[in-house]
Design a protein that fits this description.
216 residues, alpha+beta, three-stranded antiparallel β-sheet, two-stranded parallel sheet
C-alpha cells in the first residue's frame, strides 16, 4: 500500500498481485477494514508477501512472507551503526537463503534452524535500535523463509511496489486525484493494463474489446 493525495486529503492505493494478475484498489482507509471489505473470507490459499504492516497479518491466509529486501536494508544500517558480528551473520543467512532460491541445485540448508540459533543469542541490549528489530524477527519467524517452500513466492515485494508506482508518478505530475471515484477508475485501469502485460496481451486491442463488450 502507498499513500496518495485525493482532493487535498490522504488516500491509499493497495495492491495484491502475482505473476499473472494485478489487482489495485483505492480507498481513504489504510486500516484492516479495507482488506476485510475486499476479502471477507480472507485469502486461504495465498502466501501474502508484505513489509510487516499489521493489517496484512490480520487477513486470513495460508501464510505470509516478509519482504527480505526490507530486512536486508535494516541489517545494512545496523551493521554500519553497531559493527555487529551478529548482524553480519544474520545478513549472510538471508543472502544464502536467496541464493538457495535462485540456485536450488545447491545443498539445501535448514535456514529456520540457523535463524533460531541466532535468535537464541541476540546482540547486546545496549544496541537499542536493534532490539525492536530482533523482537520483530521473533514475532514473525514463521513468515521469513516461506519463499523457499513455495516456488512462486518471491523473497521480496518489489513487484507489488512496481504495481503501485504509477499512482505515485501520476500524483507527482498532477499533484493529486480530484476524487476517490477518479482514483478508483485509475486503479481499475492500471489493474487491467498490468494484467494484460503480464499475459502478453495487446493493450489497445484488449481495451477496445472491453469497451465494446456488451453482455447478452
Amino acid at each position: 500500500e502507498t499513500s496518495v493525495r485525493i482532493n487535498g486529503e490522504k488516500g491509499w492505493f493497495w495492491t495484491l498481485q502475482n505473476e499473472q494478475y494485478t489487482f489495485i484498489h483505492c480507498t481513504d482507509n489504510r486500516g484492516y477494514a479495507t482488506l476485510e471489505g475486499l476479502f471477507p473470507k480472507g485469502l486461504p490459499h495465498a502466501i501474502i508477501g508484505h513489509d510487516a504492516y499489521s493489517a496484512w497479518f490480520k487477513l486470513p491466509a495460508k501464510g505470509h512472507q516478509l519482504c527480505v529486501a526490507h530486512l536486508l536494508r535494516d541489517m545494512n544500517f545496523f551493521e554500519e551503526v553497531y559493527k555487529s558480528e551478529w548482524v553480519t551473520n544474520l545478513k549472510t543467512l538471508f543472502k544464502d537463503a536467496i541464493q538457495q532460491k535462485n540456485k536450488p541445485i545447491q545443498p539445501f540448508q535448514n535456514f529456520n534452524s540457523k535463524l533460531a540459533k541466532l535468535l537464541e543469542n541476540p546482540p547486546d541490549t545496549n544496541h537499542t535500535l536493534l532490539v525492536p528489530f530482533v523482537k520483530r524477527l521473533l514475532k514473525y519467524k514463521e513468515s521469513l523463509f516461506n519463499f523457499l517452500d513455495y516456488e512462486f513466492v518471491p523473497a521480496d515485494n518489489n513487484a507489488s511496489e512496481r504495481a503501485i508506482r504509477n499512482a505515485k508518478v501520476k500524483t507527482k505530475i498532477s499533484g493529486q486525484f480530484k476524487s476517490i471515484e477518479n482514483a478508483q477508475i485509475f486503479a481499475i485501469l492500471r489493474s487491467v493494463v498490468d494484467t494484460l502485460n503480464k499475459n502478453n496481451q495487446p493493450i489497445l486491442v484488449s481495451l477496445q474489446n472491453l469497451a465494446n463488450f456488451r453482455p447478452e
